[in-house]
Specification:
Length: 431
């Protein structure tokens, strides 16, 4: 077979290489910025013990839908937070649970007067997390609102690490902490997820905040001003990823979100590939919704946040992954002798450099958490060839479902697993 030779193939290959390296270069910049931000945090944390003369009262909201496996541990951890006891209320918003969630919460109410149960009316149930939060907000007594998912086990000082930063600047709308993988040692998948979440937070969240005060609300472990929520109109109940959607509107209003990874909560992550694929597809579709909803605002360049974040999301989900697929395809076709590329260059060295940079960035992040063990080094190398490549499938799956207008389950949440309380202590880590 005579291989196909065409200048268009050469051009496509060059374009894909350029796009890939532009994204890699941006990631390297973010990784160094994240390192600088970490050093800054360590300095200010050593100088300030975050003691306030008057700690603000906080309403903690925990949206719950069939959470009998985890809700007891979450309430127990929240009730033991190192925070003035008379300045906390814990509201569990029960959205139509048909398991033992309500009974478990009612048992805690008998022991702790700070715990309340908000049972959504029958006609108000089943509309998702954003709807539950909007309904719960009406029952909150205080100006400062904290959000925790029903599977979380926050460390005792998680709130104390966040609150002072919310009070120092009137333009600071919310302060977010770090989330860790509680079941990281369960199997190979959870180890890879643990590495991914650390990289996301220390490279993207910390790096972006260091460069331009940009951070994205996570689904948990954050505090936010009630007044800002009211200005923004609450959570968007059509959004699959209500946290990232709200982040955009916060920046549109002229506020910003601060990232403080000194505050830590532990949460469950998927333990099976099926659950992981379903969760990640939901995230992709949620980001697609955000891109569609605010596309015109980004085009009009109204907000630096929108310009930066939208360009990154678009590049990551479309240009970068398209370039990866294209380069993979051309590589396979060239190896099979179907096409021939005539572009000269040390392409093996180019690929090897990208691989080394990826490994070094991840190992830098793992060292922050004292997790740069030989086993995690192995999983990081494995991650490049498996987990990262699987994201190609996830993105195209999300796009396919969006094109078909495939319905998303309103409470399509991650499956919960029973994890002994002692596991949390084993997983504790510090910067």
């Amino acid at each position: 077979m005579i291989p196909l030779v065409h200048p268009v193939l050469d051009s496509l290959f060059l374009v894909s290489v350029v796009i890939i390296w532009l994204m890699i270069g941006y990631q390297v910049i973010l990784a160094f910025a994240g390192y600088r931000y970490r050093q800054h945090l360590l300095r200010i944390d050593a100088q300030d013990n975050h003691s306030l003369q008057s700690w603000p009262a906080i309403s903690i909201m925990v949206p719950a839908h069939n959470e009998e496996r985890v809700i007891a541990s979450t309430i127990d951890r929240l009730s033991k937070l190192d925070y003035p006891s008379d300045r906390l209320e814990i509201l569990v918003i029960n959205d139509g649970s048909h398991d033992a969630t309500q009974t478990i919460v009612e048992d805690y109410i008998k022991k702790d007067s700070r715990v309340s149960l908000i049972n959504l009316a029958k006609g108000q149930t089943g509309h998702g997390k954003a709807h539950a939060l909007n309904q719960g907000l009406e029952h909150c007594k205080y100006e400062t609102i904290a959000i925790y998912d029903a599977d979380n086990r926050p460390e005792s000082d998680s709130l104390r690490k966040l609150v002072p930063h919310l009070l120092t600047d009137e333009k600071c709308a919310a302060v977010i902490g770090k989330f860790r993988t509680l079941n990281r040692n369960r199997n190979g998948l959870t180890r890879l997820i643990n590495i991914e979440t650390l990289a996301f937070q220390w490279i993207l969240q910390a790096g972006r905040f260091c460069l331009s005060r940009i951070a994205i609300l996570p689904g948990t472990n954050y505090i936010i001003k009630r007044s800002v929520l009211q200005q923004c109109g609450g959570w968007d109940e059509k959004a699959i990823t209500e946290d990232s959607e709200l982040s955009v509107r916060i920046y549109q209003k002229g506020f910003y979100i601060k990232f403080i990874p000194l505050s830590v909560t532990w949460e469950q992550e998927p333990e099976t590939l099926k659950v992981w694929i379903r969760q990640r597809t939901r995230w992709v579709r949620g980001n697609n919704y955000v891109l569609r909803k605010f596309a015109m605002d980004a085009v009009r360049l109204k907000s630096r946040f929108l310009v930066t974040e939208f360009f990154y999301l678009f590049a990551l989900y479309y240009l970068f992954l398209l370039a990866i697929v294209l380069s993979h395809l051309l590589f396979v076709l060239s190896g099979l002798g179907i096409v021939a590329l005539k572009v000269p260059g040390p392409y093996f060295a180019v690929w090897l450099s990208a691989f080394v940079l990826f490994i070094m960035e991840i190992l830098l992040v793992l060292s922050y958490e004292n997790e740069d063990s030989p086993k995690n080094i192995f999983y990081t190398i494995l991650m490049y060839f498996t987990y990262c490549q699987l994201w190609l499938f996830i993105v195209f799956r999300g796009l396919f479902f969006d094109a078909r207008r495939h319905r998303v389950g309103i409470w399509d949440k991650t499956e919960r697993f029973l994890i002994p309380e002692t596991d949390t202590e084993k997983e504790r880590t510090r910067l």
